[in-house]
Amino acid sequence: MFLQKLVEYANSLDMPPRGYRRKPVRYIIELRDDGSLASTVPSDTSDPASGKTKRGVERRVPELRRSGIATSPILLADNPTYTLGIPKSEESKDIKRAPACRDSYRDLMRQCAEETENPAVLAVAHFLENDPLSSLSLDDGLDLTSTITFRVGDVFPIDEPAVRDFWAQRQDVQGNVMQCIVCGQERPALERLQGAIKGIPGGQSSGTSIISANESAFESYGLEHSLIAPICAACAERFTFALNRLLADEHHRLIIGNTVFVYWTRERIEFDFLHALSDPQPEDVRALLQSPWGKPATQVEANRFYAAILGASGGRTQIREWIDISLEEAQRNILRWFERQRIVGPWGEEPQPLGIRSLAAATVRDLSEVTPHTMRTLLAVAIMGRPLPPTLPQLATQRARVEQTVHHNHAALVKLGYLSRHPDKEGTMIELDVSNTEPAYLCGRLLAELEQAQRTASPGVKATIVDRYYGTACTAPGTVFGTLVQNAQSHLSKLERDNRPAYVGIQRTIEDILSGLNAFPKTLTLDEQSLFALGYYHQRAHNRAQALAHKKED
Hints:
Helices cover 46% and strands 11% of the residues. It folds into four domains: 19-171, no CATH class; 177-246, no CATH class; 253-308 and 319-431, no CATH class; 432-554, no CATH class. The protein contains 20 helices and eleven strands. Mean pLDDT is 87; it is low at 296-300. α1 packs across α7 (233-248).
């Protein structure tokens, strides 16, 4: 289904001619109509001052994916070894190979000239038959990996319709007639896919293959290579072009670590899904809520949302997740995603939506450590509306214990997970909830208030009780809170003497919290640890917001 939808998407794009793709062309050999040189020095289209164009200017040129040691020339758009017979290096194997490459290229040009009878092609073929190296003036810095093409007067032979038809016919394979798994037609199947998938992190720089087998364990019924999942040439070209287009467009792909997420819709929409997921702004979420397709509508219901989560292993593309849902459902799920993670800022600020990267970072020490599983899970929750598995909030609470604090992204991910498991709590946990009597939540609030007492009584203290006891307090509160409350009396006594208003406020809050606790729980489950983290975060944000408000009044 993934490949079929890519082919459908390709049909809506401006696809290059069959067997062509966009590729940098650095050198252009200028010829006259009779095949003689118009200039002995090939035109160099690279811009030395810009790293982006050092390989030359992109053009649509014939494409061929070479493998093995067999000589396989690319018509009118190949490297100097094939075009002119210049060895890639001084090694003997390259020196011996160069003449064979040159001869195969010339044979291909002769065949093209005979079949097309195109004047520009005839001019190139004539030039190549007359010892081209003796008449060209080539720079010592000639890039032997770059592409060379020809221009005859004002005409590029590779752009001629007859040349394109000739190359397209050569892409048709013979034999291996099988049912294509994409279009369902009985057609010759490719033994090896010609196009490579570019831009998947962790894959080979030359690209990866979406279907291949190079070990007997991957083969069946005697089928080898790409024949294990037969694809006709036309379908292979279309889905390769479509996927490469998506991977090259920052509005359609999101990369985190060694995983990339790509999406598209059957009918074009204005809203930028990836920007909303990767770097959401409040106005983005408001636009999502207020957009015409934010409400059920016939034209929206007919649209579809397609996405894939991809990775790579060496030369292979890995499809880690495939998503095919209605656009209305995707919209509804992403709205729920933003609503469930909605929580006040660390200083009591208005809730700000967090992106995928921020939430993923809550599970690890460094973003580079985010696993493909985490990325895949978060995206599936956001787009498909799946419940967030408890493992990710657990990782966030573990990070909070290690770091001895609860950051904004920790709290948002923990809240997202908690509401996934308790949908009856929708719309809650955004800010401090003094009516919440859950013991774990009250214990988290109490720790934040005891820390407030310490900081207010001893400004500038380097290590607070949270720095020392958060890990124990959130897992086994019964073993530590008695001591913490007792030790807090010295801070409260100091405040009563030196800062009576602060003492009254903190003492009242502590009493209110303790009145809801019959006893400190001996231990807290993983679900209760989430509540503890939220209680601590809410109370601390509330305290900070009050402190800022008092400072403004002063």
